[in-house]
Write a structure and sequence with these properties.
Number of strands: 11
Strand content: 5-15%
Oligomer: single chain
Structural class: alpha/beta
Number of helices: 13
Bound molecules: pyridoxal-5'-phosphate
CATH superfamily of the largest domain: Type I PLP-dependent aspartate aminotransferase-like (Major domain)
CATH class of the largest domain: Alpha Beta
Strand order of the largest sheet: 1-9-8-5-4-2-3
Length: about 375
């Protein structure tokens, strides 16, 4: 059935459309001037010195691990999209799955510490669905143990932990897939504080060449492309960066609307029996890339399917959790390994959430959910 209320929908305005038209007319379709504008805007927003635009968050994660030379164990949550763990496996490391806190769905210093061994080289924290992890304790743990720290902030752009932006504590990796807080269609950004690391990332994402096509155009010998390291092509095209730049200008407006919708969901759903609304940790702000509730496991699938039959794009993130994905079952993942994560994966429902959702649409979601819960 066609969705009456989709799970999510990007908000693309006239400015984005005009900017893309301009880049198409200009003929500059690969990495170009808009990438620099987007990256500068991102740096200003996050309060970080370096931002490198890429073709996805997955590329940003792989670039971070490869450039840091991580080949050992990397602690990652299983309560995430499979890309987090894949980035480790693809770059030659071993993902080691840790638990999350049941209320916030986020990993903590304590759940990471349980999985550290003498072979651990890095930690990738995932800020789940718009809420940052408790970063001060995690940063302290990683510093004390000499671990490289990456923030998979694909789902969290614009939220803070004790006043600092998610992704600004360590090496940040962001996604601009259409379900995220801003979108470029496909796209990603890596942020960091170290200049040498930033330069290496830029080169790794562009065939190992340290200058960009855009910079070379202004050089005396623009044809000179010196590949200093073996690299990928992870670059974001100029027209997508133009979309990203304009989306960035609307990020706060988008997130405020998400927060208003979340507060209304909290109010309308808070009293329902057998349903738990999301918990925001003290110290965190939440930008609700997803609004997730939990219901009894035995009723979850029936409730989601009943809502979908009503044309409501309810969904589940993430079932199966990553350690139970076929490729990680083959690498030793097994049921019972992570009881909290497995319980969440079986009981969680993701409700429609996007800035352009009307109050009326939200009412339809709530009515459908109420009917489904009463019917189980
Ligand atoms: C936590 C997390 N990490 C990584 C990704 C991958 O992002 P992308 O699709 O930009 O590669 C996603 C998104 O879908 C995600 O939710």
């Amino acid at each position: 059935m066609a969705d009456i209320v989709p799970l999510c929908r990007p908000s693309i305005g006239d400015e984005e459309i005009a900017a893309v038209a301009e880049t198409l007319r200009s003929g500059w379709m690969a990495h170009g001037a808009w990438n620099h504008k987007f990256e500068d805007a991102f740096c200003r927003y996050l309060g970080v010195p370096y931002a490198i635009s890429m073709n996805s968050c997955t590329s940003a994660l792989e670039a971070a691990l490869a450039v840091a030379g991580i080949r050992g164990e990397v602690v990652v949550p299983s309560m995430t999209f499979v890309a987090t763990a894949n980035s480790v496996a693809i770059t030659g490391g071993t993902p080691v799955f840790c638990e999350v806190d049941e209320a916030t769905r986020n990993m903590t210093a304590a759940t990471i510490a349980e999985r550290l061994t003498s072979r651990t080289e890095a930690v990738i924290v995932v800020h789940f669905g718009g809420q940052p992890c408790a970063m001060d304790e995690i940063v302290e743990l990683c510093q004390r143990r000499g671990l490289f720290l990456i923030e998979d902030s694909a789902e969290t752009l614009g939220a803070t932990w004790k006043g600092t932006q998610a992704g600004a504590f360590a090496v940040g990796c962001f996604s601009f897939f259409p379900t995220k807080n801003i979108t470029t269609g496909e796209g990603g950004m890596l942020t960091c504080k170290d200049e040498v690391f930033a330069n290496n990332i830029r080169a790794f994402a562009a065939h190992g060449v340290f200058s960009t096509t855009f910079q070379r155009e202004k050089a005396t010998r623009p044809w000179l492309r010196a590949a200093e390291i073996p690299g990928h092509n992870f670059r974001m095209p100029n027209p997508l960066a133009a979309i990203g730049y304009h989306q960035m200008g609307r990020l706060d407006e988008f997130n405020r609307r998400r927060q208003v919708l979340a507060a209304r969901y909290d109010e309308l759903l808070g009293q329902l029996p057998d349903l738990a609304i999301p918990v925001v940790a003290e110290g965190a702000s939440h930008v609700y890339q997803m609004y997730t509730v939990t219901v009894p496991e035995q009723a979850r699938d029936r409730i989601v399917n009943a809502m979908r039959a009503d044309g409501i794009g309810a969904s589940v993130h993430f079932d199966p959790p990553v350690h139970l994905q076929p490729c990680y079952l083959k690498r030793g993942g097994h049921k019972g390994q992570l009881p909290v994560t497995e319980r969440l994966a079986a009981s969680l429902i993701t409700l429609p959430m996007y800035p352009d959702m009307t109050d009326e649409q939200q009412g339809l979601v709530v009515d459908s959910l109420r009917r489904a819960i009463n019917g189980f």
